[in-house]
Design goal:
The complex is a heterodimer of chains A (284) and B (738). With 284 residues, chain A is an alpha+beta fold. Helices cover 23% and strands 30% of the residues of chain A. Chain B contains 27 helices and 22 strands. In chain B, 57% of the residues are buried. The chains are: A alpha+beta (284), B alpha/beta (738).
Chain lengths: 284, 738
Amino acid sequence: MAYGRRVRRRGVPAALAAVLLAGAAACDSGGEPESKGSASSSADAKGDAPPAPEPTPEADPGRIPRTAAQARRLVEDVIAGPEHFGPDAVRATPYESDPARWTVLAEDCAWRTEDLPDDVLATRTRYFEIPAADGKGPVALSATVTVHRTTLDAAWEQARMLEEAVGCPEQTLRAGERLTGLTSLALARGEGANETSDDSLSERGECVSDSRGGPYPYTWDQSTFGPVVVGVSVCAGEKSSPGEVAGMSVEPLVTMMQRAQGAVGREDAGGDGDTGSAGAKEGD
Amino acid sequence: MERLLPSDPAHLGGNRLLGRLGAGGMGVVYLARTRTGAPAAVKVIQPEYAEQPEFRARFRREAASARRVASPWVVPVLDADTEAEAPWLATAFVPGPALAEAVAACGPLPGHGVRVLGKVLARAVAAVHDAGLVHRDLKPGNVLLALDGPRLIDFGIARPTAAEETELTSDSMVVGTPGFLSPEQARAQPVGPASDVFSLGCVLAYAATGRPSFGSGAADALLYRTVHDEPDLDGVTDDGLRALLVRCLAKDPGERPSAAELDTALEADAPEGGIDWLPDAVVRMVAERSAEMLQLPGVEPTEVSATSAGDAEGAADADTGGGLDTTVAAGSAGPGRRRVLALAGGGAVLLAAGGGTALWAALRDDGDPPAEASGPRRTLGLHADLTGPQKAAGAAQERAARLAVDRFNAREKAPFTLELKVRDDGGDPARALTAARRLIGDRDVLAVIGPTGYASAQASLSAYDGAGMPLLTVSEGSFSAAQAALAGEPKTYFHTTALSARAAFTTVFTLLGQGAQNVGLLADRAGAIRGFEHSSMAHNAAAGAELALYLRVVPAAAGAEALGPVVADMIDHGVDSFYYTGTPERAAAVARELAERGFDGPRFLDEPAAGGAFTAAGGDAAEGWQALTPYVGADADAVRDFAAAYRKRFGSAPGPWAAEAYDVTRLLADRLAALAEKGRRRPTRAALAASLPAARFKGLTATYRFSDSREIEQGPIHHFRVEDGRFGYVGPVALPGS
């Protein structure tokens, strides 16, 4: 299993991270949350019978990819393009990652590429940019889709990501580019404001690079649906406001999640809404 | 309503200010009494906005237009001064709840009710349009329910345009409330009357289904869905109504009906001048809230002049014969019997006599509930999981509360009889919401103890908060439930024990004190959000203490067999101590893995994992494991007498949270007794909630003082260690500053 690679925590940052769940959760629910889940669907005002649970989207074991080729096609169908990042976004150079490799965080908190592990059938990252304009610096963006063999494998990827932010709150992306002050939070379906994916992970921090400067606000949002993991990263430029940054990942993430659900979800949206068991059924 | 601040004026343009109803970016809204004694809502604009000449010119035009709005369903403008340094506008005050509160507490309206509401609001909106205004912020919070019908408030006056808003506040670029504003508003484009029709469609869909049509969550996602997605109209079974809503919610403003067309299209026998078309629970809520408001100083109709001649209200009020009735005839005698019938029988009888006038007088005369042979009563609610996953905790709290109630009532000269009404939700969110609504709808219940756990809190908090019901939880000690359930700070939700995250924080320091230098933290996502709070707090604590920590996270979907390799990996990394957050059963599996490898460093569990299932499943491997919890042990000295009484009555030792629930019940009794000394009338929920922050009640387990965020100050944390197969109580943990 791919959780073999681990990173030992090196030393401890002096300042106590002020992030409580309070601060982190607020990023996800800036609007007006209501009572969640089936409690808020049509309840008869006079009766007390609990309302029927809303069907939860689930991955259909018959539709998920079994081979690398099938998975690559799924990735192509799901991954976002520049149009999802707004009218000013363009492809960056390089545009797409090597499909035979993926990035891994090593012991020294630096990212490296490695061959795909056994539990990953396909993965792809696309890089975009919103060029500098109106006194604002350029914004670097990316979209990633990974198709694991099973839902459980995707769940382990989320687990690893949560560990990484704690083990390596400062990370080196590539020469001259770093991430700092990273904190992360994950909410399963039905927790907090997550009603749209099996699991929704947010990483927040800052990005700084020799060429673009910084530190500027950095976000990484990653959601899973069955064995599919979709993620969007935003590294803001000079003078971007945090409000703008938070908004940039919404459309591409929502688009990719909807495409993933359309491609591998159950058509009749039936079932008893228990997505937890889908993973167990598929086994390791 | 909140008290006036020292910086607020006492009078403004002849209006006597009584309190603050709300404050927004542009200024403050006060409750006031006009020169003629009518209650009013006075909106005062901050001078910074008023300095802009375009703003002031627009305000002048809009105030003039507002005076031309002629509809009984729109609050009338009473008075205004558009030339003052801080310009203001006074509209008639409606003491009833907003539609938002009513639906949150009592559920969606039946189909007929939605049609009547729609017809009334369509007329109101049409009247606003006829006067040349656009509302621009139509939402359930701006539809108030008075005894004789709905009222539209806060319409299109002195609302900044998108351009002004960005200049004055650097953040928002969209004006209006996400979830109810139109696609053109979401795109910060110019709006017209059709925008109000879209919002009205959203309001009616909300009233019909209990859900906003474009969901909830982050503002960005809401705006996106408003512009791109189809609205959620599931549950609207009335086909004609649904078709109309679809037209109102068309993305293209040109395709929507006008407000006047909507009025015509909505067929309903609208019994105007009453609210018997609303469900009984809502009518009761309206009546109760209206009565409460009448008890405010300076709002008594008896102080009001008996004639409306010369009032600024104009003809509108005379048509409705309602709103807040300022023409109470001196001799409205003998309403007593009618009132009893009305409140007992529900809405229909209430309004047979044409409107709220008689009921108004009746309510004003007598605030006490019907007298009981046994003297005054005060009722508390208990909302618990008695049959579901947390039934042990729930049942312990129920028993302890009953014990406290019985002991209070057995006192000589008890100032009133305490009563406990219990609702079981089985830990299920849907049932939790139902239980909350039942307790809220029972006007005797003044405060609720509960709920037991996270899921129930997330499901029911918005109903309780919206209804202003004081809710005191003993065992639901998370930060996240309130944040997930509510948009803002909870107003009446009290944590009566230390938040469990504090125990997690303290665990790390306890580990340090036991010699740990490299803590292994196993965060099991089977522990859900509670577990996450604890592991998050733990690694932050370690960072602050400069204590090395190695975190491993295990997915909820992973089977217990995955725990072995994870534990092995942690040991390989040289951890000398262990902290597990998650569930009792999986904790037992971790304990066995550690025992097999001969690990004997300090080992801790978080509070949810420290249950009987851990010791039962862990066997010998569980020995020596420790936990810090917000609840005291049954054999602590401080609760010795309580434990004896509990054992005698219920045949077993008190379980976790029992002693705390006993104390909280006594705390509420103490507050009610203090209020009883001030007056014989039964206090309102608001008064009881307001009396809690002032409490200094010394209970068996703690002294109850609440912080601004309504958490108990210095809530005790307790230390347990497994010995001979059970969690033995070690003692309280010394807290910094205590």
